[in-house]
Structures are given as structure tokens and as C-alpha cells.
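Annotated sample (chain length 122).
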Amino acid sequence: MLHSDTKAVAQSFGYVPFSEEDYEEQFQADCNFDPKLIVLGDLKTYPKNGSVYSDKGILKCYWKPQGGNYSSLEAEELQGWYEVPSNEDIEEWTFDSVAYTPAGDDVEPDHPDSWLSILGLI
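Output written by the structure step:
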């Protein structure tokens, strides 16, 4: 939940914070990928950073580290599908100076590997 000062600043810009009921819900990123359409050997059909699909009602997002924080071996091991974070996390990172990568490392919100960047929110 936003700190009262942060909430006041956000509302002064016209932002309507998530309701208490919606905080724990998964952020509703747009689904833009269908894993059933992958054609072996056709790289155009493979997921890209920020590809999102629904797996039995759980949104998952594809991530391959882009920002140089990881070695090439680490980046290869980390690439894959991650559950999209909650509304509360997204809201907090939007108004904070720190956001997280899918691997849980803290980065600046506009870093290429932050959830905010991966989901196209920044």
C-alpha cells in the first residue's frame, strides 16, 4: 500500500491507486503471445522480452536479461517465463526509486531488466 505522502502526490497527478481488494491481484498485463503458435526453427514465432501469456489463469512474462547486470552464462540461465507481479508491487515500484528484476535483483525503475520496463510500463 502506498505511503500516505506518496498517495497524496500520486492523486495530485490524477492517479487513482488500486483498491485494497485489488492490491494482491496479479497485474493484468496484456496477453500478446500464444505458445501454441511456436514453429520450430522460425525465430519470429518465439517469445521476446515482454511476451505475456496466460497459463491456467496465471499471467507469465518472458524475460531474457538485457541490461548488462549479468554475465552471458547467468543471462542464459535466467531467461525464461516468470509470473507477472502483483498490482501492489507494480504500484510501489512506479513511485519508488527501486524496482526489481524477475530474478529479484533491485534496479532503477527504468532499467531494461526492471519489471516496469519488461512490461512496457516505462
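Annotation: The first strand starts at residue 52 and ends at 55.
Annotation: The two ends are 21 Å apart (CA to CA).
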